[in-house]
Design goal:
The protein contains 4 helices and no strands. It is an all-alpha fold. The chain has a domain of about 70 residues.
Length: about 110
Protein backbone atom coordinates (compact mmCIF):
# COMPACT_ATOMS: atom_id res chain seq x y z
CA UNK A 1 0.00 0.00 0.00
CA UNK A 2 2.84 2.40 0.70
CA UNK A 3 3.94 2.19 -2.93
CA UNK A 4 0.44 3.07 -4.12
CA UNK A 5 -0.23 5.92 -1.72
CA UNK A 6 3.33 7.02 -0.93
CA UNK A 7 4.74 6.73 -4.42
CA UNK A 8 7.21 9.48 -5.33
CA UNK A 9 6.76 10.57 -8.92
CA UNK A 10 9.62 10.93 -11.32
CA UNK A 11 9.87 14.13 -13.32
CA UNK A 12 8.46 12.47 -16.45
CA UNK A 13 5.54 10.98 -14.48
CA UNK A 14 4.82 14.39 -12.96
CA UNK A 15 4.83 16.00 -16.40
CA UNK A 16 2.52 13.30 -17.74
CA UNK A 17 0.09 13.76 -14.84
CA UNK A 18 0.24 17.56 -15.26
CA UNK A 19 -1.03 17.07 -18.83
CA UNK A 20 -3.64 14.47 -17.87
CA UNK A 21 -5.04 16.46 -14.96
CA UNK A 22 -5.94 19.30 -17.35
CA UNK A 23 -8.89 17.10 -18.42
CA UNK A 24 -10.43 17.57 -14.99
CA UNK A 25 -11.42 15.01 -12.40
CA UNK A 26 -14.76 13.99 -13.88
CA UNK A 27 -13.69 13.73 -17.52
CA UNK A 28 -10.53 11.81 -16.58
CA UNK A 29 -12.53 9.46 -14.33
CA UNK A 30 -15.14 8.90 -17.02
CA UNK A 31 -12.50 8.28 -19.68
CA UNK A 32 -10.33 5.86 -17.71
CA UNK A 33 -12.86 4.45 -15.26
CA UNK A 34 -16.09 4.23 -17.22
CA UNK A 35 -14.86 3.87 -20.79
CA UNK A 36 -11.73 1.79 -20.18
CA UNK A 37 -11.84 -0.01 -16.82
CA UNK A 38 -15.56 -0.86 -16.64
CA UNK A 39 -16.03 -2.61 -20.03
CA UNK A 40 -12.88 -4.68 -19.60
CA UNK A 41 -13.94 -5.63 -16.08
CA UNK A 42 -17.46 -6.47 -17.25
CA UNK A 43 -16.25 -8.78 -20.02
CA UNK A 44 -13.76 -10.57 -17.78
CA UNK A 45 -16.30 -10.91 -14.96
CA UNK A 46 -18.98 -12.20 -17.35
CA UNK A 47 -16.66 -14.75 -18.92
CA UNK A 48 -15.38 -15.96 -15.54
CA UNK A 49 -18.86 -16.27 -14.03
CA UNK A 50 -20.35 -18.21 -16.93
CA UNK A 51 -20.98 -21.91 -16.54
CA UNK A 52 -23.91 -24.14 -17.28
CA UNK A 53 -25.29 -23.96 -13.73
CA UNK A 54 -25.58 -20.16 -13.69
CA UNK A 55 -27.51 -19.63 -16.90
CA UNK A 56 -29.67 -16.98 -15.20
CA UNK A 57 -26.60 -14.75 -15.10
CA UNK A 58 -26.66 -14.57 -18.88
CA UNK A 59 -30.21 -13.19 -19.17
CA UNK A 60 -30.49 -9.72 -20.73
CA UNK A 61 -31.95 -8.16 -17.57
CA UNK A 62 -29.20 -9.54 -15.34
CA UNK A 63 -26.50 -8.44 -17.80
CA UNK A 64 -27.97 -4.93 -18.08
CA UNK A 65 -28.06 -4.47 -14.31
CA UNK A 66 -24.60 -6.00 -13.94
CA UNK A 67 -23.23 -3.68 -16.64
CA UNK A 68 -24.79 -0.62 -14.96
CA UNK A 69 -23.23 -1.61 -11.63
CA UNK A 70 -19.89 -2.15 -13.34
CA UNK A 71 -20.08 1.35 -14.89
CA UNK A 72 -20.70 2.86 -11.45
CA UNK A 73 -17.79 0.90 -10.02
CA UNK A 74 -15.66 2.08 -12.96
CA UNK A 75 -16.47 5.68 -12.08
CA UNK A 76 -15.57 5.01 -8.44
CA UNK A 77 -12.30 3.42 -9.58
CA UNK A 78 -11.56 6.44 -11.78
CA UNK A 79 -12.24 8.90 -8.97
CA UNK A 80 -10.09 6.89 -6.57
CA UNK A 81 -7.19 6.71 -9.02
CA UNK A 82 -7.54 10.45 -9.68
CA UNK A 83 -7.32 11.19 -5.96
CA UNK A 84 -4.27 8.97 -5.48
CA UNK A 85 -2.54 10.43 -8.52
CA UNK A 86 -3.33 13.98 -7.48
CA UNK A 87 -2.00 13.40 -3.95
CA UNK A 88 1.22 11.95 -5.39
CA UNK A 89 1.51 14.94 -7.74
CA UNK A 90 0.96 17.45 -4.94
CA UNK A 91 3.56 15.60 -2.85
CA UNK A 92 5.97 15.81 -5.81
CA UNK A 93 5.38 19.56 -6.15
CA UNK A 94 5.93 20.08 -2.41
CA UNK A 95 9.18 18.09 -2.55
CA UNK A 96 10.35 20.17 -5.50
CA UNK A 97 9.49 23.37 -3.65
CA UNK A 98 11.28 22.15 -0.51
CA UNK A 99 14.29 21.25 -2.61
CA UNK A 100 14.35 24.74 -4.14
CA UNK A 101 13.95 26.34 -0.72
CA UNK A 102 16.76 24.21 0.70
CA UNK A 103 19.02 25.20 -2.17
CA UNK A 104 18.16 28.88 -1.71
CA UNK A 105 18.99 28.62 2.00
CA UNK A 106 22.36 26.98 1.39
CA UNK A 107 23.31 29.64 -1.16
CA UNK A 108 22.45 32.35 1.36
CA UNK A 109 24.65 30.71 3.99
CA UNK A 110 27.62 30.45 1.62
CA UNK A 111 27.34 34.09 0.55
CA UNK A 112 27.69 35.49 4.07
Amino acid sequence: MKRLFGHTLTESQAQQWARQREQGKWLWSAKYGVLLFAPITFVIKTLLSYNGNNAYRQTPNFLAVDFAVTLIMGLCWGLTMWSISEKNYQRYLAEQQNSLNANDGSETLTRT
